[in-house]
Amino acid sequence: MSATPQNTRKIIHLDADCFYAAVEMRDHPAYIGHALAVGGQADRRGVIATCNYEARAFGVRSAMPTRHALRLCPQLIVVPPDFTRYKAASKAIFAIYRDYTDLVEPLSLDEAFLDVSNSHHHQGSATRIAREIRARVKTELKLIVSAGVAPNKFLAKIASDWDKPDGLFVIRPHEIEAFVEQLPVERLFGVGPRTAAKMHALNLNNCADLRQRELPFLREQFGKLGMQLYQLCRGIDHRSVHNNHLRKSISVETTYLNDLNGFDECLPQLKILYDELLERVEKANASQQIKKAFVKLRLTSFRVKSVEHNTSHIGFEQFHELLKTACTRHQEPIRLLGIGIRLRESDDPLQMDCLFNE
């Protein structure tokens, strides 16, 4: 497929509204109209995975401890997640997406980019394609997806969030400059709270401010991010929508509704993750490409820590030892546990010595 010029591409970003909670309300209509959250129980130090808009009106948010969410909204209904149903709903949503283009790039169970630049549907109108997709998901699956349509991924993602819930927002090529100009810097990809604070200290509050600065200044102040900022504040994003990637790693992870405390509580979960990882490695035919094995922890402070070593094969004992090392180093309660492998290219040398990294 030939490349499409930047401002003639037609990119759709689709994002299901409060996905897990929406599936629960669809499957259990009694929840409709009530504040609902999917997450762990308060008496077991659970956290909120997602919630509906009725709950958000009380200040409930994802990743919030359930105990705090219940203080904000005492009538909150908290249900445990059912990933079997969520994955089934996701599969059905993506099947609809692929009716319109092969260029579908999943970002999560409920979020994706579509490139419909060369789609023949609706005479190539991305807006009408997005409108029909939303209607089909609502009619066939009884779920809601919001959509953003724009000439690139950066703008399409911002657009999908512009008119939530249940929204469709379009940024046409001739509207890019005016639209981007008023965006606060916090909306730019790669700008977190610390970078935003530095930008505000430099009187860089929106993209119009950024455009007044030359590239050398942005590179001096923000390093590698400087070039990205220079392009994004002008609405430039050359990234393509990929339906397949050169795989660099294979991993599995689970965020637990109730924190895990130490190695002994993590060990039973490790066996579950290991079996799933083996299936993925076999399915990807990647057993001859293994370069490293790793264990990843996300702590209750939301810090992410990992331990890895070089190897050309994997076994349960390797992950057992990596997990023990990780838990010894980091004794804070654990929200997420993950394991995986990093893959080498065919010409990468094998390094058999062990190397542990935090």
UniProtKB/TrEMBL annotation:
<dbReference type="GO" id="GO:0006261">
    <property type="term" value="P:DNA-templated DNA replication"/>
</dbReference>
<dbReference type="InterPro" id="IPR036775">
    <property type="entry name" value="DNA_pol_Y-fam_lit_finger_sf"/>
</dbReference>
<dbReference type="InterPro" id="IPR053848">
    <property type="entry name" value="IMS_HHH_1"/>
</dbReference>
<dbReference type="GO" id="GO:0000287">
    <property type="term" value="F:magnesium ion binding"/>
</dbReference>
<dbReference type="InterPro" id="IPR001126">
    <property type="entry name" value="UmuC"/>
</dbReference>
<dbReference type="Pfam" id="PF11799">
    <property type="entry name" value="IMS_C"/>
</dbReference>
<dbReference type="Pfam" id="PF00817">
    <property type="entry name" value="IMS"/>
</dbReference>
<dbReference type="InterPro" id="IPR017961">
    <property type="entry name" value="DNA_pol_Y-fam_little_finger"/>
</dbReference>
<protein>
    <recommendedName>
        <fullName>DNA polymerase IV</fullName>
        <ecNumber>2.7.7.7</ecNumber>
    </recommendedName>
</protein>
<keyword id="KW-0460">Magnesium</keyword>
<keyword id="KW-0963">Cytoplasm</keyword>
<dbReference type="GO" id="GO:0003887">
    <property type="term" value="F:DNA-directed DNA polymerase activity"/>
</dbReference>
<keyword id="KW-0479">Metal-binding</keyword>
<keyword id="KW-0548">Nucleotidyltransferase</keyword>
<dbReference type="GO" id="GO:0009432">
    <property type="term" value="P:SOS response"/>
</dbReference>
<feature type="binding site">
    <location>
        <position position="110"/>
    </location>
    <ligand>
        <name>Mg(2+)</name>
    </ligand>
</feature>
<feature type="active site">
    <location>
        <position position="111"/>
    </location>
</feature>
<dbReference type="GO" id="GO:0005829">
    <property type="term" value="C:cytosol"/>
</dbReference>
<dbReference type="InterPro" id="IPR022880">
    <property type="entry name" value="DNApol_IV"/>
</dbReference>
<comment type="subunit">
    <text>Monomer.</text>
</comment>
<comment type="similarity">
    <text>Belongs to the DNA polymerase type-Y family.</text>
</comment>
<dbReference type="Pfam" id="PF21999">
    <property type="entry name" value="IMS_HHH_1"/>
</dbReference>
<dbReference type="InterPro" id="IPR043128">
    <property type="entry name" value="Rev_trsase/Diguanyl_cyclase"/>
</dbReference>
<dbReference type="InterPro" id="IPR050116">
    <property type="entry name" value="DNA_polymerase-Y"/>
</dbReference>
<feature type="site" description="Substrate discrimination">
    <location>
        <position position="20"/>
    </location>
</feature>
<keyword id="KW-0515">Mutator protein</keyword>
<keyword id="KW-0234">DNA repair</keyword>
<comment type="function">
    <text>Poorly processive, error-prone DNA polymerase involved in untargeted mutagenesis. Copies undamaged DNA at stalled replication forks, which arise in vivo from mismatched or misaligned primer ends. These misaligned primers can be extended by PolIV. Exhibits no 3'-5' exonuclease (proofreading) activity. May be involved in translesional synthesis, in conjunction with the beta clamp from PolIII.</text>
</comment>
<feature type="domain" description="UmuC">
    <location>
        <begin position="11"/>
        <end position="192"/>
    </location>
</feature>
<dbReference type="InterPro" id="IPR043502">
    <property type="entry name" value="DNA/RNA_pol_sf"/>
</dbReference>
<keyword id="KW-0238">DNA-binding</keyword>
<feature type="binding site">
    <location>
        <position position="15"/>
    </location>
    <ligand>
        <name>Mg(2+)</name>
    </ligand>
</feature>
<keyword id="KW-0808">Transferase</keyword>
<keyword id="KW-0239">DNA-directed DNA polymerase</keyword>
<dbReference type="GO" id="GO:0006281">
    <property type="term" value="P:DNA repair"/>
</dbReference>
<keyword id="KW-0235">DNA replication</keyword>
<dbReference type="GO" id="GO:0003684">
    <property type="term" value="F:damaged DNA binding"/>
</dbReference>
<dbReference type="GO" id="GO:0042276">
    <property type="term" value="P:error-prone translesion synthesis"/>
</dbReference>
<keyword id="KW-0227">DNA damage</keyword>
